[in-house]
Amino acid sequence: MKKYKGGCGHGNDQIADVQIGPCDPIYGCPPPTEVVCLLVDKVYDECKNVQVDEVEFCYEACPENPIVDVLCYKVEIIDGPSCEIVSQGRVRVTVSYKVKIKLIFEDGSTQILCEEKTVIKTFNVPRAGEPGLFLHCEIPFLECLQAFVESEELEYGALRTTIIACIGKYTLLKLLATVQIAVPSYGFCPEPPDCDEVLSECPDFNPQWPPYPLQDR
Known about the structure:
There is one protein chain. The protein is mostly beta strands. It has a domain at 39-181. The chain contains no helices and six strands. The radius of gyration is 30 Å and the shape is flat.
């Protein structure tokens, strides 16, 4: 086995004779050929928050043509998420998103409604504010789960309808530091193979010859 002197980056710059992909389930992976020094964002602390927000819509329908169904049509982030450390160990996350729902009326007609909502949440993250660490937040999953009519009330000749849209939101918080870290390596990856280019969208044409049936002799 090759021995390494102190420090990062010593060794062969070429990849060892190994296949890219899972290791052999019995023999495992071969020993690395070098130790390299990488500049990465290391995660020192993290947490997640999964919850369902309720977004309220109000619509005045005609009593002769009430809403018979509601569809959760679309949700998209329009601002954020932004996060800040408000005090030692405490983090505030703010995000704004737009929700679209589709109303279906008794006569078969439809209408799209939009509503914007800003959600502010504060979380306890013990290492937030620690020197050398910076905060990162993201919402990798945001989904319009369902919508339903919560209530209907007749007011001044109009059917005041309250609709609730349920928005599933997954928030991820990380405390990071950019560090140099030594990791075992097999060297640089090999050059990737050529892509299989599609030259034509048309199907192949392979007529069978002869174009007439064989004759019995």
